[in-house]
Amino acid sequence: MLAVPDQAIESVARRVCADRTPAVLLHCAGALGKDAYGTFQKRGVAFGAFHPLLSFADPRHPPDMRGACIGISGDRHARSMANALARALGARPITAHPGPVPGPAYHAAAALIANGTASLAHVGVDLLVGLGIGRRDAAHGVAALLESVASNVRTMGTPAALTGPIARGDADTVRRHRAVLPKRALHVYDAVAPAILAAARARGLSPAAIRRIQRALRED
Fold this sequence. Notes:
The protein has 220 residues and is an alpha/beta fold. The chain is 55% helix and 9% strand. It has helices at residues 9-19, 76-88, 104-130, 135-156, 165-168, 171-180, 183-203, 207-218, and strands at residues 24-27, 46-52, 69-74, 92-94. Helix 3 packs across helix 4.
């Protein structure tokens, strides 16, 4: 298992195979598939990828693998080993045909969710702190909110898990939001709103309600 920086995978694989010949080599890079090994090949070695769809922010407190999805690709024997390993960890192996998973688009989706969510949480915590709430309490509240969203996505899927004024077509509340937000948070709100509106459209928001929301988002 090669848990090393993306650019080091090929060179580390060569060094590992120079010392011994493993049956399977798996790397953990989400943006790369078998191409992570470059031109390196060795007879008798199956090459593959094993990428946990999880956020690893603190090495001292890794996330629980149980119930997580693992992106898997590679040679047949590598995929078989990766599947067995994922299931032994209580995780859910995922593959795509023709793929690639892992790969750039797969990793972009993961980065958008993990890093976008953490960044939005940072903006939200700052807003609550600005209202006089302690940062620890604000972070706890935002975390609980995110956990409820994750639970809804897991049980209901998307876009059914969407809630809030845009999902309801409540243009007046959107105007009130925009009127009180500080400049930095308003830029974030306006940048994210079109994606929320697209999800609301997929959820069944009427064309008339969509137009009302769009007008509210254009007002200064």
